[in-house]
Structures are given as C-alpha cells and as structure tokens.
Specification:
alpha+beta, binds zinc ion, hydrolase, metalloprotease, ARM-type_fold, Cytosolic carboxypeptidase 1, ARM-like
Length: 1120
C-alpha cells in the first residue's frame, strides 16, 4: 500500500519535473533544444497515456501545465514535438469532461489550433497525423467553444477542413473528425452560406447516398451537417435546384424499408431534419409535393405509428406534411359575414368602410407566403399570438412607458350642460321619498329607446292577466305527466317558430324548469324574444334558451390530454389529400345558399343555427360521420369568429361523430388544456335533465391548412385558421342536440331575468330599470339602479341615501364571453336577495349596472364586435354616439358622476378569458407599470394609493375560483382605449377593473381540476358583492375617522402580504399564454447542433474590425 502510494507520488512529481523542464525550454528557445523538447514532450505523453493521476496533475490549475503545453505548441517549429503536444492534449481532453476543454479554450487553445491548421495547410500535402490530431481536438473544442465556427471563418480555416473532406472521401479515419468539425462550422448561418458556395452540399450528397449500412456514424454526421446547411435559404434553393429533395425522400424510404429493427432511428430522423429545413422555403414545399412527398411520408408514418419509439419520426413527418399541405381558402363565396347591417353613418377610415371597399375577389387570394420564410421555423409550433391578446413576445413592448399617459387626465372634456341630460338616470338623487307610503319606483318599459322615452308611469312590469302573452298557435304546450315516456312525442319535436302562420302543429312537453329555476319562465322567454331585433330576423328559438338550463349537480373534471390525439387528427386531415375519393364533400347546411340542404336522404345530420346567438354558417359532411363546420364572421366584418352555438338533429345513437370547426382564429385555446364543448340534449331536458353538459372526446385545437389573404386580413400577414375538433357519441335516437362554445346567455334571457328580478323587489329594495339607449340594431340597453330604500331609523335617511358611494358594473361587451353574463346574473341575484348582508350592501352603495353592453352582438351570434364591426371595448377613449351608443352613454354616465362629485368607488367590467384558468382581475397602477419597464423615471415622486389592491385581495380570500397570482395591474398600450384604463385615467376611478373569468376551469382552490359551470360563475358574482361589503370597511371615511386603526392595519396587512412586485414577478405581469407546450409538439428541433447564435452573427455584421487577440496573432503570423 505504502509502496504503491510512494510510486504514484514519485511518478506524479516526475511529471511536474518534466513540466518545469519544458517551461525552462520555452523561456529560452534555441534550435539546439529541439531534441530536448521533443524528448520531454514524448516522456510527458508516455506518462499521460499510462496514468490518469498524471493527467490530473497536468490539468490542475496549480501546476500551470496547460499554459506550459500551449506555450510549447506556439513556439515549436518541430513536427514531432507538435504531434507529441497534440497527442498530449487529445489525451487530456478525452477524459475529465468538458472542464479541461473549458480550461483549454480559456487559455486561447482554439486560436492556436486554427492557426496551426491554416499554417500547415500552406504546403501540401498536409501531414495526415497532424490533421487528424488537430481535427480531433477541434471536435472536442466545438462542444465547449460556441464561437468556434466564427473563429474558424475569421482565421480562414473553413476551406482547409472542407478540402480535407473533399480529398479524403475514402479515408474514413481522417474523414470522420473533419466532417464532425464541418458540422460544427455549418451550425453558424454565415458559415453555412459560405460553405454552400464552396460546394459542400454536393460533397455531403456524395457521402449520404446511395443507401448503405456501412459507416453509419459518418452518415449521421454528414446528414446533420447537411441539415444545418439547409437552414440557409440560399443553400435550400440550391439543393432544390439540384434535385436533392427527391433524393432525400428516396434515401428516407430506403432506410425505412431496410432498418427493420429500428437500430438507426437517428439516421432516419436526420434525413427528415434535412427535408424539414428544405421545406421551409416555398420552392422546397413545391418540390416536396411534386416528388409525392405527402404520400411517402404519410405511408411511412402510418407504418411507424404502432412503434412508440418511432414517435420522433412520425412527429417530424407530420410537421413537414402540415407545412407542405397546400394552403386553401375556406369553401365560402366570401369570408365577409353572411349578414350585413347597413349603418347610417360609415366613417371612411373605419373597419366597415375598409371591408366593403376591398377589391372584389380579395378573399380568393391565398397567401402562400403565409408565415414568411425567415420566421417559419419559429412559428410552426403554434406559438404565434393574435392581435388582441398579445403574447409574451410582444408584451414587453406593450407596457405603457409614457408617464404622461399614465397620469390622470384632469380636464373636463365635456361641458356640464351637455351632461345634464343624464340627470334622468340619477333620479334617486333628487327623489323625495315619502317614507310612510308604499313606494312604486318608476320603471320605463324595456322596449323603449331614449328618443321616445315616456315620463314615468305606472309599473309596467307586472304582467297583466288579461293580456294574451303569446301568439303561438303552432305549438301547444302541455306539461308531461310524471314518469311517462313517449318516444313518438319526442319524434315530433319541431322547431319553436314564433310566427303563427303555416307552422306545423307540434305537441311539446316542457320540462318544469320554472320550478327549479326561480328566474326562468319559458312563456316569458318567448315573449321577450318577440321584441328582440336580430339582423337576420330570426323566427326560431333555441330549445335550451326556452327550456332553461339547470346547473349540473355533478363534478365535471378538466380532461386530461391524451397523447397523440392531435397527431391522429392531423393524419386524418392529410388522408383527405391522399385519398380524395374517400371524401364526400357534401354541403348539408349553408347560410349562403338558402336552397340548401337540397334533399335529405336521412344519412346526414341536420344542422341549424337560425336563432338568437346562433352562429353556424356552413356544414360540410366530409366522411360518413365527420363534418367540417364554418362559423360566420361578426356582422359587418370578415373575421372575429370563435363563438359557436348550433343545433344538430337526425343523429344515430352510439356512433362516434367527429366535428371540426375549421375557421377558428385564436392561436391557442383551452380546448388544448382540458376544456370540453357544451351540449344540451332536448330529450334529456324533457326527461327531467335540462342541462348544458360538458362533452366531447379527442378534443384538440391546431393550425390547419386554410388561410386568408393578407389583404382580407386587413394588411396583416396572411393568417392561417385553426381547427377545433371534437368527437361526440349521441345517446338518443331522433334527439335534437345543441352545441356551444360556452353556456349560452341570450339578450332575451337577460330581459327575462330582469323582469323576474324586478318582481323580487321588496319595500326595502330600491330597484329601477331604465333604457340607457337604443343600439344600432334597435334594441334597448338596460341600465339598473339598485340600492336600499332610505332607512327610517336614521336621523336624516335621505341624506344618508344620497351620500352612498356609487359602484358601477358592466358586462358582456364581448358577446362571445357568455360567462361574464352568468357572473353578472350571480351579482344581480345577490343584490336582490333578502339576506341581511345583501341589505347591508344595498345600504352601503348605490349600484349602477349595465348588464349587457353589447346586446346586438349577443343577439346576432357575434364573437367580439357590435354591428359597427368594431370591438366596443376599444372605443372608450372616443366613443361615437351613433356608432357606439352603449359605450358613449355609459361613459357619459360616468362623466356625469364625476362632474357632480360622485366619482364611483369601484368600476368593474366583467369579461371572459379564453386562454387562462381561474377568475382574476386586471387593474391599473402607475407604479406597477413603471416598475415593469426600464424607463429611467424616478418612482419616488409618484404618489399612489395602494387601495386598488384591496378588492382583488379580498376576492382571493373569499371566492374559491379567484386567483390573485393571475391578477395584473399594468397598463398596456394596446389596452389604452378599454373601459378599465379610460375609467381609471379620465374618470379618476382608482379601483377600475376588468374581471376575467375562465371559460375552462380552475387549477387552484376548491375547484381545482374542475371545469367551470354556471353555478360557480354565479357564485363568483355573489362573492364579488360580499367582497364589496368588506371593502366598505376599508373605504368608509366615517369609520376611518372613528380611529378604527385596526382596520387600517388590516388594509396594510392585505397589501403587504402580497409582495412588492419586481421586474420578474409573475404575479404582476401576466403572460396571456400560461399553459405549457404540448409534449408532442416540443420535439421539433431535437437536432443537437442546430443552434445559431444570432448575437454572434450580429456582432460580426456590426463589427468587421477584429477585436480579439486571436486575430491579431493570426495576422501577425501570416504577415511574418
Ligand atoms: Zn372580453
């Protein structure tokens, strides 16, 4: 033991001795020392080859071995010494991980090697052993030194290696390391272009083909090099011109056929990598189609599907096929909405004028350059973002950095005389309550617009018994006896038709939802429908809206995404191209063609959406049990579709039907993260289960091959559409089922609910409904005032009444966000309830509520806009009285309140969010906005009350669906015209919010893992009220003056428990896309060496003057 240790110490010290000997020789170089150096390096090499301890000794920092060796390499002119040293280095760097290589690189080893390489290539033939050593070392260096490629180019080493490859194609021993180095070089885009010009592509193809299982290592390196080279568009064009794409496909097929035991999956993957990069250019995609690439990759992939380890091949193939799938326009005469609503005044620069001034046939242009070639690689994994919900890439640019735009606007933009007209909507402030008489609050009938507003008269809301409510001769409604089932009755389910002419006599059983739903009444609903004005003049009623929806008393978990669903669906889509004869292509529903469907052979489903909030434009049967569905654009627009609501009939039970909505627009959706569509079965409803139910399997959402031209897309680059696909098995024969994006909530339903709510009024409740204005479509926009009647116990009840702070609430500016209406319903029901807290809340505030800011959009099945073709929540800065009446008058109400010193305590606009889970709020804070930017503004002089945080904090403590960590208080530029920001800046409401509710479900709290339902949404609305009640304690000046210091402490506490945000805090700056990417899509660029260092390239472009010491040395040596 001791002897051994001594021996090893002895040898270790021997190496150190040799090193110091070498160091001395380096210091005084003489020609006569050549032999000595040669001998010393030879001895060191021998020791190193035999003992790992010696290697450690040399590589250790303390010995300075690396410096001494490099210094010898730099100084020597002797070939044998050079070879010795290179051998030593190869031994050293082979083991010890990347650590030793790191030391080597940091001591300038890379430059020395490159200089040596270039220097020794000057007098050919080059010494083979030397070249072998140098390249073996460069391969190792390439793993550590990211700048190797650039250094090599600047040293003029690219062609040296390339020439070695060219002239040693049969000499595999030397070829392999040289190729490996070439692979590293070509990962740099500038190098790739230069190497391509020097004929590298052609050389790679000599190595790659024809198929042979010999030297697979070499083949793999050549393929990877080729793949890197093909990332350059210039090289890709060159390759296509030389006909390499069919060659690659042939080689891929050869490998597919011969690699039966799947031992060379990496090689097959590399071939696909080359094809993938080639098809990034338009020319490459064309060559791929011409070479029958779709069928080849489809067939090979289908054969690979059963073997899970071949997934990478299938995924890359699928990616290539999707990319090359010929772009198509939607099968529509125009993508403009089927329905047009003439506007009295069309601003020349507005979207409607632009849309209808577009040259004819603009829709026909399919923009093949869709995702432009430079960015295509990045966008193909479906991570692009659309304009209204900006993604992380653009979000930092979106933060408002202009401090003046964050400060409140102090000027009064409108003269008070103009605002005085709005006094009418605040009659409660001037009313003289006569406390001892029963009070009837005047309410205007909901059908009246502001023009023909009548003076307050008798209560119109009480139904008059002798007035015939309906003219529905075509339908006789009878209650079904308990427990009986009559299938014939169900078969006779006709449509609910409102006009009484020519309708078939149908016997309809109505589920007794009225008993279960206190605010629902089918008869009343029909009555409401009659005064609702739609652009298509609907005469039918959706059964779910008529019967009503009772919340399911059942948990509906968020679906787990099944691996490979998307792939399967995409393959089925690709099959259409490969086996076109299998496709029926039968149009079964078409709003553009009123004569459709022509005949009914009983084999196809029947579709319909001609009822309020319905949105289906066209249905095409593509296979026996598969349908493509197209949604209508928002009226007076050519896009904005995402919301859907339609009816399906004539189904066969027990069969799996696949539905594809093929013109969705958002780039991602919660349908990829466990959200299901909603279905309502009329048979189930009649049998006592009137529920919207989450349904569907094999759900996914992906970019498809339909696109529209950039002109039609309003100047944006041509956009692809997305497919939402889901599969449903119907339970009943001859059922009528409805599908919806989210729980429908129509305008007529709102009117019905308001009537029912007004009936809940008691002597304590002050409830008044006004018509704020008439919409473009001729519907009224209800405005509610809810508070408590003046109390009689107080000394001056009227003055208490009038001093109550105002809370201003609104919802449903975006028609597709029906969840916001359900939250609003919860709020309204709570406010009208008789609980002591509700009474206390009414006594604390005066509520001004606009439950539906966009009735026309809701009625006509729009997703985002009003009839002006515009997003109303982008009009708050400068609303136009004619084009945006609801926004104009809502803002006027707020301006009136401000002008009369009654600026609301809280403003909140309810919304729905399609891409996030939970419920959360957006608020406004100067400080938090400034903190998010790197603007050099001293934040010390910004005084800001932190009260805006209290309400979200309270909600997070009370409402199970609410998530504080998703809240954000940053003011974005793109949101400067939204209600939240304008009410904050212009009206001066500090607590101005957007409350966003998920369409999907929750990932925290009591409802974690569950999809959201109407009862959770309504509960949210009620919890919002309770939070307002608690907020009172923090805001009431009276109570604060009473020195309730503990309350102040509580507020401080509330604020402090939420940590002060910093730049990286996820709690204050929320990414819209907070879901992970899908496993099956991540594998797009699994190649190990395809990183291009853009910074590096940038440096090079900007700075031609060499600045590294390496370069000075090089030029010195060359000139000398
Ligand atoms: Zn919204």
């Amino acid at each position: 033991m001791n002897k051994l240790k001594m021996a090893s110490e002895k040898s270790a010290s021997r190496v150190l001795m040799l090193l110091s000997q070498l160091e001395r020789l380096n210091e005084e170089p003489k020609v006569s020392d050549n032999d000595a150096i040669r001998q010393t390096t030879g001895k060191i090499l021998h020791l190193i080859q035999t003992q790992e301890k010696t290697r450690k000794e040399v590589a250790s920092k303390s010995s300075g071995g690396m410096e001494i060796i490099l210094s010898s390499l730099e100084n020597t002119q002797d070939l044998q010494t050079t070879l010795n040293i290179l051998a030593i280095l190869n031994e050293l760097l082979t083991v010890g991980g990347g650590c030793r290589t790191g030391v080597f690189v940091s001591k300038g080893g890379t430059a020395l090697l490159l200089q040596l390489l270039v220097g020794s290539s000057k007098d050919p033939p080059a010494n083979e052993e030397l070249m072998l050593h140098i390249h073996s070392l460069l391969v190792k260096v390439g793993l550590k030194d990211r700048k190797l490629g650039v250094k090599a180019r600047l040293n003029g080493a690219l062609n040296v290696t390339l020439n070695l490859v060219k002239y040693n194609l049969q000499n595999h021993k030397l070829l392999l390391p040289c190729l490996q180095v070439l692979r590293v070089y070509s990962s740099n885009l500038v190098n790739a272009v230069s190497l391509g010009k020097s004929g590298t592509l052609e050389i790679m193809f000599e190595i790659i083909g024809p198929f042979s299982k010999k030297s697979t290592t070499l083949l793999k390196v050549a393929l990877d090099t080729l793949a890197s080279l093909l990332k350059s568009g210039m090289n890709a064009r060159r390759a296509v011109d030389r006909g390499y794409l069919p060659t690659l496909l042939t080689i891929y097929q050869d490998w597919h056929r011969n690699d039966t035991r799947h031992r060379h999956v990496v090689i097959r993957k590399s071939i696909l990598g080359c094809i993938k990069n080639l098809t990034n250019i338009k020319l490459g995609r064309k060559a791929f189609i011409d070479a029958n690439g779709m069928r080849i990759l489809y067939n090979t992939s289908t054969e690979c599907l059963p073997v899970r380890t071949l997934d990478p091949l299938v995924n890359t193939s699928s990616l290539i096929m999707r990319k090359c799938f010929p772009k198509n326009r939607l099968p529509l005469p125009t993508i403009k909405s089927v329905f047009h609503h003439p506007l009295l005044h069309i601003p020349a620069s507005g979207p409607v004028a632009k849309l209808y001034n577009q040259p004819p046939g603009v829709d026909d242009v399919v923009d093949e350059s869709d995702e432009n070639e430079a960015t295509e690689v990045d966008t193909e994994n479906d991570t692009e973002y659309d304009e209204d919900e900006t993604g992380p890439k653009t979000q930092n640019d979106d933060i408002e950095t202009d401090i003046n735009k964050l400060r409140p606007i102090q000027m009064n933009t409108r003269p008070f005389d103009e605002l005085r007209a709005y006094e009418y909507f605040f009659r409660e402030f001037s009313e003289n309550f006569e406390l001892h008489r029963p009070i009837i609050i005047p309410t205007t009938p909901s059908s009246l617009g502001p023009q023909n507003r009548r003076p307050p008269q008798e209560d119109l809301l009480t139904p008059k018994p002798d007035e015939s409510p309906l003219e529905l001769d075509s339908i006789s409604i009878s209650k079904r006896p308990e427990g009986t089932s009559d299938p014939d009755l169900v078969c006779s389910l006709g449509r609910l038709v409102l006009d009484d002419e020519g309708g078939e006599q149908a016997v309809l059983e109505v589920p007794d939802t009225a008993a279960l739903l206190p605010l629902h009444d089918p008869d009343l609903y029909l009555e409401m429908v009659k005064s609702t004005r739609s652009v298509p003049a609907y005469t039918e009623v959706g059964y779910p809206d008529y019967f009503g929806h009772v919340a399911l008393n059942l948990r509906e978990p968020i679906l787990e995404r099944v691996y490979g669903v998307q792939r399967t669906k995409i393959f089925q889509d690709i099959e259409r191209l490969i086996h076109p004869s299998d496709i029926l292509d039968k149009v079964v529903y078409d709003l553009d063609n009123q004569s459709c469907p022509v005949t009914d052979n009983g084999e196809s489903l029947k579709f319909n959406s001609k009822f309020e909030s319905g949105n289906l434009r066209k249905a095409i049967q593509v296979r026996k049990f598969e349908y493509d569905l197209i949604l209508n654009s928002d009226i007076n627009s050519n896009h904005y579709h995402q919301w859907f609501y339609f009816e399906v009939g004539n189904m066969r039970p027990g069969v799996r039907y696949r539905f594809n909505i093929i013109n969705c627009e958002k780039s991602n959706s919660q349908f990829n993260y466990g959200m299901q569509v909603l279905m309502y079965s009329v048979q189930d409803a009649i049998n006592g289960s009137p529920h919207w139910v989450r349904t569907g399997s094999d759900i996914c959402y992906y970019k498809n091959h339909f696109s529209r031209s950039s002109i039609a897309a309003g100047g944006q680059k041509g956009k692809s559409y997305f497919t939402l696909t889901f599969t449903v098995t119907f339970q009943h024969k001859d059922d009528v089922c409805y599908f919806a994006y989210h729980y429908p909530y129509t305008y007529s339903m709102l009117k019905m609910h308001l009537q029912k709510l007004s009936a809940l009024r008691t002597a304590q409740i002050y409830y008044r409904q006004d018509d704020l204005c008439e919409t473009l479509g001729g519907n009224s926009c209800p405005l509610l005032t809810i508070t408590a009647m003046p109390g009689s116990s107080s000394n001056d009840p009227i003055s208490q009444f009038r001093s109550r702070p105002v809370v201003f609430l609104s919802a449903r500016v975006h028609p597709g966000e029906t969840n916001s209406s359900w939250v609003m319903k919860g709020t309204l029901e709570y406010l009208m309830s008789c609980s002591p807290q509700a009474q206390s809340l009414r006594e604390s505030y005066i509520f001004k509520i606009i439950p539906m800011l966009n009735p026309d959009g809701v009625i006509n099945g729009n997703h985002r806009c009003s009839l002006s073709g515009e997003d109303l929540n982008r009009q708050w800065q400068n609303p136009n009285a004619e084009l945006h009446p609801t926004i104009y008058h809502a803002k006027s109400l707020l301006q009136y309140l401000r002008a009369t010193g009654r600026t609301p305590l809280v403003f909140c606009d309810y919304h729905g969010h399609s891409r996030k889970k939970n419920v959360f709020m957006y608020g406004c804070s100067i400080k938090e906005t400034v903190w998010q930017t790197n603007v050099n503004t001293s934040t010390c002089d910004l005084h800001e009350d932190l009260g805006y945080r209290t309400l979200p904090k309270l909600l997070s403590q009370m409402a199970p669906a609410f998530s504080l960590s998703s809240c954000s208080f940053v003011v974005e530029r793109s949101k400067e015209a939204t209600a939240r920001v304008v009410v904050w800046r212009e009206i001066g409401v500090q607590r101005s919010y957007t409350m966003e509710s998920t369409l999907c479900g929750c990932d925290q709290g009591k409802y974690k893992g569950l999809q959201i339902g109407t009862s959770e949404l309504e509960e949210m609305g009620a919890q919002f009220c309770l939070a307002l009640l608690r907020l009172k304690r923090f805001t009431s000046p009276l109570e604060l003056h009473n020195h309730n210091s503990h309350l102040l402490d509580m507020e401080t506490d509330l604020i402090e428990t939420r940590s002060i945000p910093n730049i990286t805090s996820p709690t204050t700056y929320v990414l819209e896309e907070d879901e992970p990417a899908f496993l099956e899509e991540v594998d797009y660029s699994a190649e190990s060496n395809d990183e291009i260092d853009p910074d590096l390239e940038h440096d090079l472009q900007d700075n031609h003057a060499p600045q590294t010491p390496i370069l000075t040395q090089t030029s010195g040596k060359e000139s000398g």
